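Format notes (please read before filing issues)

Several people have asked whether sequences and structure tokens are stored in separate files. They are not. Every record keeps both together, in the order shown below: the sequence lines, then the token lines. Line labels are part of the format and must not be stripped during preprocessing.
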Amino acid sequence: MMKKYLLMLLVLLFSNHVISQEINHKSIIGKWKVVKVLKKVDIPNLQDIVKSFSTATFDFKENSDFKLTTADDSKLFSMVTAMTNSSKWKLNKNTFVVNVGNQSDGYNILKIIITEVNGKTIFHLSETELDLEVQKE
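Then the structure lines:
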């Protein structure tokens, strides 16, 4: 049992080291298209937003501007995009979290936790608990 925990700890430490080498401000810049929703939310009221996120594109500009678009817009998703219009993004290099917002709101509109699993980039949206597999365009 102890060996299993030790092995898990070593894997986590190694994967964190690998991630830290690849995720930085420069590597995030660009358009990221959602290719698959990995973890869905079982709340009926959020099904439309899940559908909208399944065709979403996250655009991280070099000047820190941020834009979120989708091919399948819903009323709830429109509210999210309205909140993120004219917002900026900022990467916390220690936690691999991208905070979206403005200085006035503490970059607190949207939090995206970025991980890499088996060579695939995953955006975890902490507000919705969605896990999105994304690919840079």
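For reference, the curators noted about this record: The chain is about 30% helix and 40% strand. The first strand starts at residue 30 and ends at 39.
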